[in-house]
Amino acid sequence: MQNKKILLAVILVLLAAADVLVFMAMGAASPAPWLLLVGLLLVPLLLRSKATKCDSFLVWDEDLSVGIEAMDRDHKKLLNLINNLRAAVLCNTGEAFERRNLEDLVEYTKEHLQREEELLRQHEFPNYEGHKAQHDQMISYVNTYVRRYDEQGRKILPEVADYLTLWLTDHIKVTDKQYSAYLNERGVT
Ligand SMILES: [Fe+2]
Ligand SMILES: [Fe+2]
To answer: Which ligand places an atom closest to the C-alpha of 178?
Structure first.
């Protein structure tokens, strides 16, 4: 990444130097140096917009691990499903693909939350009710989003993708991690 930045900086400096030379050789009345200057300004803008799009995708890292294989597997799949929805939003993939992605994500989110609650109940996790209350609130938001999607169409999808991205990463890092040590001590890994 660092090497790419250095290479880009070198290319930009060389282009800027070439532009100065073209200015000196052809004068400001010629369109050539101006065209070169516009190209020079567009390069970082184009690269920046590509980077911003890619930055919005979720990448799994060990910070998200709750130390329980089955739950990590579920969370990784949820991240993938959110990324699919993000891709559908960014790339205008059409109604059928968007709807399919949204439905898959909603369905799997509900399945995961139930699986997690079952695990916590089974091992009598002390804050089971508090944890479940957070899941219930999230499901209620998701149901509202699905209803709004039926009524308003794709314009609400970026909001859904942003909400689920934030909720999921925050919930895993803060709330889900609260059961890690408790379950690990009971042999769940
Ligand atoms: Fe949870
Ligand atoms: Fe979870």
So the answer is: 1
